[in-house]
Amino acid sequence: MIKIRTVFEKNGRAKYISHLDLYRFMLRAFNRSGLPIWYTEGYNPRPYITFALALSLGFESKCENMDFNLNEEVDFDEIKNRLNNVMPEGILFNSVAFPQKKITEIAFAEYGASIATEDSGILLQEFLKFMQKDSILVEKKTKKGMVQTDIKALSEITNVTQNQDSLDFNVRLPAGTQSNYNPMLLTNAFINEISNKNISVKICRNAIICSDGKKFF
Amino acid sequence: MLKDKIEKFLLSVQKPSRYIGGEVGSIVKNKDNTDVGFAFCFPDTYDIGMSHLGMKILYSLINSRENFRCERVFAPWTDFEQIMRDNNIPLYTLENLQPVNEFDFIGFTMQYELSYTNVLNMLDLAGIPLYAKDRGEQLAPLVVAGGPCVCNIEPMADFFDLVILGEGEEVNLEIMDLYKVYKDKGSTRTQFLIEAAQIQGVYVPSLYNIGYNDDGTIKFIMPANNAPATVKKRIIKDFDKVFYPDNFVVPFTEIVHDRATIEVLRGCIRGCRFCQAGFIYRPFREKTTETVYNEAKKICENTGYDELSLSSLSTSDHSEIDKMLSTLINYTESRKINLSLPSLRIDNFSEELLEKIQKVRRSGLTFAQESGTQRLRDVINKNITEEEIMNTCRIAFEGGYNTVKLYFMMGLPTETDEDIIGIAELAHHIVDLYYSVLNGRRGRPVQISISTATFVPKPFTPFEFEPQDTMEIIKHKQKLLVDSVNDRKIKVSWHDPKVSILEAVLAKGDRKIADVIYKAWLKGCKFDSWSECYSYEKWMEAFNECGISPEFYANRKREYDEILPWDHMDYYVTKDFLIRENITARAGFTTPNCRDNCSGCGIVNETGVKCFD
């Protein structure tokens, strides 16, 4: 049994594949690929496929991780090609390797947010003002119920850019098995404060970072 | 761009991946490089429509022609429909996200009567005039229909330009080829429709004039412009060689039947007298084991599905069933594919067969006995004896099964209280049998569920002449059944008779029903097969306002010599045969299955070959 870790992009129409549907989707993709995927040995054998960090429905990503096991050694490039050959538009495998990091080492995720608007100048001013607040309190759903959190203290915002019809910025938030923050907590808090409601937000996950500051892989 | 507009709202609706396409196996052609575009509409949600085999076949078939393009359309659920209406998003196809009204053909598959209002709703969302007469003389878009319900499409006839009877694998392409010629010539809609009516299997409702008697029955059906007096359905002669897709569209989100499916046979030899499918899909034809195996392998490899299902009206009637299952199981086992076999008949369900199914995975045991007494089973020609039912249950119980689902119909012709009590008695006998098989050993408790549907008399069956039970009688029978069951191991459920009466009206209605359907839709009726959407009250208002009595259609007995709304449709099963079968049924006699003895339904006269040697 050989453990394999892959990184793939999830873009375009593929961003509407929910996390729950992704397992079934990948299972069928493996069947199509002909790769010698390893099955669990229990009463109801099934391929062992895991994803490092769930991605919210509707987010794009440049860095989704999928782990699985193979019964025999296959060249990394061949794995990549065989998977890409059976993927729909929007899903593209970029790298295949043996896993280096443990999933529990994941500490942060970096997202690119793009807020579409007719007047990005006004939006930029509003955003800068918003980020000057001492704290930005949001309600976050946890296992223990709703908890109030200061999302500002947790967000590290960089690269705020005004484009012709959008305001873009990057945000780094805690992620992983211990605590996980959705960037929509921040963007929704912002949208709640401004008057223009006719805007739409696009989010793309750009990187998953470990506690040592290195990329998860 | 339409795509941006759609995406803007997608995350605020349930199961958004239903509305954006992009699935593996979908065929996206450049719209500028094709001559004729066909928007294939299923008048229900994605989850239902994507499970339908006919759509998969015709989608691949049309797309297999380089110059043709077929794209899928489903009814949006109410949440997304509201967003579409509020934001001027027209009904669009999933492949190119292109408005449906830009297509040459808008084709609806008519699978059940309760989807009729969805057709109107989808046309309205597409911005197309609902009534065919209001669509003017330009050629496109043509609104067409096919599927089992078109054997009596009269209640919906005013909304369709053209209707396709029978199997579509050949005639659909013929119609599209003819269309291409007329499009190039710059013809009018009427010119095209008159010519199309000459193709066998094509029914153009506007070319038929219907006259009525004072009592509301039909006086005459008069064709015009050389349209045929009776429209003959289409049949695929060499079923083993018929087109079958290499690949299916594999949805992202879960759908009702999410698996690879192979059609192993068409038609049915049984002749159960209530069953429309058993008559309108005749003759019986099957695929060879080799074809089934090759098609199954291709579909499984291309889709990656881990479940394979065999589809037909009665899979165990395949002449090579044992060989076929052994061949398939060898393949599916090696690929860890689960083989599921719906539609197995109780009377030829052998021990050997059961073992083979169990080799893969144990699923539930479901029997459609249809009625509680032997007398009534003889009337409906469901040729199963209680002994056979008990034998099968014994085999199943010995094999470790402990749940049995039993399907019955209520309101069958000649049915009495005794027949209803018989349903409960049969269930009690099965419970007793289970414990006698256990023979004192401890085991899981047995669970019997009785599910009853209200009988809906359908066209092209020997019961087409029969009235449906009134709501009062059905309610009485339902209560009687519940009172007759005195064991908590037996659960009883039933269909709402308020739905069944509408089904009967729509199934046996004439063109006067069109305005009722339109009115009901105006009142907000849609998704009538979804209990959370169905409104009996709105439908009754619509009937009232149109001055139409639903009882006239549902609860009235037809004389044998009455002109029925579907008499100009020819499904090869003759009216004489249906009358003969109706008389035999009322006398309580059975008719042998087609393999044992030809009963002369009329299909041989058309096909020219005997169904069985």
Model description:
Chain A has 2 domains: 2-99, Pseudouridine synthase I, catalytic domain, N-terminal subdomain (Alpha-Beta Plaits); 105-210, Alpha-Beta Plaits (2-Layer Sandwich), CATH 3.30.70. Chain A is elongated and about 55 Å long. Chain A has 217 residues and is an alpha+beta fold. Chain A has helices at residues 19-33, 76-85, 120-131, 151-154, 184-193; strands spanning 2-10, 49-51, 60-70, 91-97, 106-116, 137-142, 145-150, 156-162, 166-174, 200-210. In chain A, the strands form 2 sheets. In chain A, strands 1, 2, 3, 4, 5, 8, 9 and 10 form an 8-stranded mixed β-sheet that branches. A two-stranded antiparallel sheet of chain A has the order 6-7. With 613 residues, chain B is α/β, with parallel strands linked by helices. Among the domains of chain B are: 2-232, Rossmann fold; 364-495, Transcription Regulator spoIIAA. Helices cover 36% and strands 14% of the residues of chain B. Chain B is built from 21 helices and 19 strands. Chain B has helices spanning 2-10, 46-49, 53-63, 78-86, 116-125, 168-185, 189-196, 277-280, 289-303, 321-334, 351-360, 374-379, 386-398, 417-438, 471-484, 497-508, 513-522, 536-546, 550-554, 575-586, 603-607, and strands spanning 36-42, 68-74, 105-109, 142-146, 162-164, 202-203, 208-212, 218-223, 231-232, 260-263, 265-266, 285-286, 307-311, 338-340, 365-370, 403-410, 447-454, 490-494, 569-570. Chain B has a 6-stranded mixed β-sheet with strand order 2-1-3-4-5-6, with helices on one face. In chain B, strands 15-16-17-18 form a 4-stranded parallel β-sheet. A 3-stranded parallel β-sheet of chain B has the order 10-13-14, with helices on one face. In chain B, helix 13 (386-398) packs parallel to helix 14 (417-438). The longest helix of chain B has 22 residues, at 417-438. The mean pLDDT of chain B is 93. At the A-B interface, helix 1 of A face helix 9 of B.
